[in-house]
UniProtKB/TrEMBL annotation:
Protein name (Swiss-Prot/TrEMBL): Regulatory LuxR family protein
Family annotation (InterPro entries): Sig_transdc_resp-reg_C-effctor, Tscrpt_reg_LuxR_C, WH-like_DNA-bd_sf
Superkingdom in the source lineage: Bacteria
GO BP field: regulation of DNA-templated transcription
Keywords tagged on the record: DNA-binding, Transcription, Transcription regulation
Domain HTH luxR-type: 552-617
Molecular functions per Gene Ontology: DNA binding
Species: Salana multivorans
Length: 619
C-alpha cells in the first residue's frame, strides 16, 4: 500500500504523463491525479450500462508530445501507477471503468485486482470488453495462478485462440481446458470466499457433466442450492449475476436428467435473477429464456415455448455468446414444428455436424430424428441414430441414449418391427439400470412398442403409471399415455373406454399437439371429434401425404395358464413324458396342449414355438 501511495504522489507530480497511460480518461483517473486537467482533454460521450456519461481523451498532438519527451517514471513506478488506477476503477460497476480496471491491473501485474474482477463479474467481462478480457487473461504468469488458482479458469476461458473458433468449438474447448484447470482450482477450498465457493461448485457441476456423470452433477447441484440458501440467510449473496449463473447451471443439469418440472422452476429463478444482474448477466438472460423454451417444448406447451423463444430473441447479449446461448431457442422452435407436423423453421439439419460439441446436441439429434420419422422416413432416422450413437464418446453415451432411445424405438415400430423395438428398449434399461416406467423419453415409446407387438398387458401397466404421474414425465407424455390407454382398450374390443376422450381431444386441440393424433389407431381416430383449432384436420392431411405413423397392433395369442406352464417346460427342453409326470397329467393331454400352443403361435416345431413365444413376450 505504501508503494501505491508513493506512486500516486509521483503521478500527481506528472499528471499528464500519468494520464497518458490510459486510452480513455474517466473522472476516477482525474480525481486520483488532478481534476483540473479536464480543461486539457477532449470530452467523449459514452453509454455505459445504459447511462450516458462523459469520458475524456488526450488530444492526439498532446499525446504525441508526451511520447516524444519520454516517461518520467521508472518501470516499477509505472506498474504501481497502473495498480493505483486499477484499484480505484475496480470499485466502480459501470463501463468503461471495469474494462479499464482490468487493463490497468494486467499492466500493473495486480493479480489481486484481476482476481477480484473475475470473481465479481465472471463472463460478464466479455460483455464489457471481450478484447480486453481476452488480452488480460491470456498467458498469465505462473505467479498469478499460483497465488490465485481461480484465475487459471479465466485463463482457460479467455485464451486468445478461442476468438478464432465458432461457438460450438469454443464451448468444447472451454470445457476441455476448464477441466484441466480444475485441479489447480481445488487449492482454493482451504481459503475461499462465499462467491468463490459457488463458482467452484458450479465449475465442478460442469466438469461432472462433461465427464458424463449427471448423478454427481445433480448431487453438487443440491450443494449449490444449500450454499445459496445459507448465503442468502446471512445476507452475503448480493450478486444477482452469480446467483443467476448458479441457478442456470443447476437447471441445465436437471434438464439433461429429464426432470423438466424441476428444471423449469430452477431456470425461471435464474432468468429472474439475471434480469437484476445488469450487464454481467445479459447472456444468462438470453440463455435462461432459451432453455425455458426447450423445457416448455419438451412438455408439449408449444405456445409457451414459442413465447420464451421470442423473449430470448428480444434480449441482447455480446456476440461472443450469441450463437451458443440462442441455440436452445432454435431447438425449441424445431421441436414445436415437429409436434405440429409443420415444415422446419430452422437450419439445424444442415448444421447438425457442427453442433456435436454442445451440451444441447442430444436434443438436436432427437428432434431431427423425430422429424424424419413423422415425415415417413423412419429408415433414414434409424441410420442417423446409429451413426450418432456409434460416434459418441463413451462418457456421453448414456445421455445420448436416454434422449435417443425413444426415437429409435419409434423408428423400429414405424418400419413394422415392434419386437426389435421392445428388445432395444429393454437392452437400454438393462444397461443403465433404468426403470421402464420412470424414464422420460423412453418409457412411452416402449409401452407403445409392447402394445403393437401384442403385449398389451405390460403396455397398459406402463402407460397407466405415466398417465397418473406428474413427475418425472412431462405433460405431453401424460396426454399421450392416456391416448395409448384408450387405444389399448379399443384394441381389446372393450365395449366402452374408461379414458375421457372428450377432455383429451380438447387438450390436444388447445395445445396444438398435431403429432399425437398421428400416433393413434385408425379405429380410435374415427371416434375423436374436430376441435376449433383444426388440429385433427392437420393431422389427417399429414397422414394422407406421408402414410400412417405406426402399423396396427399385433393381436397377441391368448394362452391359458396351463399352456403357459407347458410352454416354460418346452422352452427348458424337457421331454413331453417328463412334463406330464411333473404336472401329474397324461402324455396325451400334454400333446394336446402342445399342439394348441403351436397353433396359437403359428409354429410347427418346438423351436419355432419357443422363438415365437419369446418374440411375443411370453418367455
Amino acid at each position: 500500500m505504501r508503494r501505491i501511495l508513493a506512486a500516486v504522489g509521483r503521478a500527481r507530480e506528472h499528471p499528464l504523463q500519468a494520464i497518458s497511460l490510459t486510452p480513455v480518461v474517466t473522472r476516477t483517473h482525474l480525481e486520483l491525479v488532478d481534476s483540473d486537467l479536464v480543461d486539457s482533454l477532449t470530452p467523449v460521450a459514452v453509454d455505459g450500462d445504459g447511462t450516458a456519461r462523459t469520458t475524456y481523451e488526450l488530444p492526439p498532438d498532446l499525446r504525441r508530445s508526451i511520447e516524444r519527451t519520454g516517461s518520467p517514471f521508472t518501470e516499477r513506478e509505472t506498474r504501481d501507477i497502473h495498480r493505483a488506477f486499477a484499484r480505484a476503477l475496480s470499485q466502480e460497476i459501470s463501463d468503461p471503468e471495469v474494462g479499464l480496471a482490468l487493463r490497468h491491473a494486467r499492466y500493473g501485474e495486480d493479480w489481486d485486482t484481476m482476481h477480484a474482477l473475475w470473481v465479481r463479474h465472471g463472463l460478464g467481462l466479455v460483455t464489457r470488453s471481450a478484447e480486453i478480457a481476452t488480452w488480460a487473461f491470456t498467458d498469465l504468469p505462473s505467479e498469478a495462478t499460483k497465488k490465485f488458482p481461480f484465475l487459471s479458469l479465466a485463463t482457460a476461458i479467455f485464451d486468445r485462440t478461442l476468438a478464432e473458433f465458432d461457438a460450438p468449438d469454443r464451448r468444447a474447448t472451454i470445457q476441455t481446458v476448464a477441466r484441466r484447470a480444475s485441479t489447480a482450482i481445488h487449492a482454493l477450498w482451504s481459503n475461499r470466499s462465499g462467491a468463490v465457493t459457488l463458482h467452484l461448485l458450479v465449475g465442478q457441476i460442469i466438469d461432472e457433466r462433461i465427464n458424463g456423470s449427471l448423478k454427481k452433477a445433480a448431487q453438487l447441484g443440491a450443494r449449490v442450492a444449500a450454499e445459496i440458501e445459507k448465503q442468502t440467510e446471512r445476507g452475503t449473496l448480493t450478486d444477482h449475476g452469480l446467483l443467476a449463473w448458479c441457478e442456470f447451471q443447476v437447471g441445465m443439469t436437471q434438464l439433461l436428467q429429464g426432470d423438466t418440472s424441476l428444471s423449469r422452476t430452477t431456470t425461471r429463478r435464474a432468468y429472474t435473477a439475471a434480469l437484476s444482474g445488469g450487464i454481467d448477466a445479459e447472456y444468462i438472460v438470453v440463455n435462461a429464456a432459451s432453455q425455458l423454451a426447450v423445457i416448455h417444448a419438451l412438455s408439449g406447451e408449444l405456445n409457451d415455448a414459442e413465447a420464451w423463444a421470442d423473449r430470448a430473441e428480444q434480449h441482447q447479449c455480446h456476440p461472443w455468446f450469441d450463437p451458443l446461448v440462442r441455440l436452445p431457442a432454435r431447438i425449441a422452435r424445431e421441436m414445436v414444428s415437429v409436434e405440429r407436423l409443420q415444415p422446419s423453421p430452422t437450419t439445424l439439419a444442415a448444421e447438425s455436424d457442427s453442433l456435436r460439441g454442445t451440451e444441447m446436441w442430444p436434443f438436436v439429434a432427437r428432434t431431427l430424428a423425430r422429424r424424419k420419422i413423422y415425415n415417413g422416413n423412419a429408415t433414414g432416422a434409424l441410420l442417423d441414430l446409429y451413426r450418432w450413437r456409434s460416434n459418441s464418446p463413451n462418457h456421453e453415451r448414456f445421455e445420448n441414449e436416454r434422449l435417443l432411445i425413444g426415437p429409435e424405438v419409434e423408428a423400429l415400430v414405424s418400419i413394422g418391427d415392434p419386437h426389435d423395438a421392445t428388445r432395444s428398449a429393454e437392452a437400454f434399461f438393462a444397461r443403465h439400470q433404468a426403470q421402464p416406467e420412470d424414464t422420460p423419453g423412453a418409457s412411452l415409446p416402449y409401452a407403445r412398442a409392447l402394445h403393437l407387438s401384442g403385449d398389451s398387458r405390460r403396455a397398459r401397466r406402463i402407460a397407466a403409471k405415466i398417465a397418473r404421474s406428474k413427475s418425472p414425465h412431462p405433460l405431453i407424455d401424460v396426454i399421450e399415455a392416456r391416448l395409448l390407454l384408450a387405444d389399448i382398450e379399443r384394441s381389446a374390443r372393450s365395449s366402452a373406454t374408461h379414458v375421457p376422450l372428450g377432455h383429451l381431444n380438447e387438450a390436444i386441440d388447445h395445445l396444438g399437439l398435431t403429432r399425437l393424433y398421428a400416433t393413434v389407431s385408425e379405429d380410435l381416430l374415427s371416434t375423436l371429434g374436430r376441435g376449433p383449432n383444426g388440429v385433427l384436420d392437420a393431422a389427417l392431411r399429414h397422414m394422407e401425404a406421408t402414410g400412417r405413423l405406426f402399423p396396427p397392433a399385433v393381436q397377441r395369442p391368448a394362452l391359458t395358464p396351463r399352456e403357459l406352464v407347458v410352454l416354460r417346460h418346452l422352452a427348458e427342453g424337457h421331454p413331453l413324458s417328463d412334463i406330464a409326470r411333473d404336472l401329474g397329467l397324461s402324455v396325451n393331454t400334454i400333446k394336446t396342449q402342445a399342439s394348441s400352443l403351436y397353433r396359437k403361435l403359428g409354429a410347427s416345431t418346438r423351436r419355432q414355438a419357443v422363438d415365437a413365444a419369446a418374440r411375443e413376450g411370453f418367455l
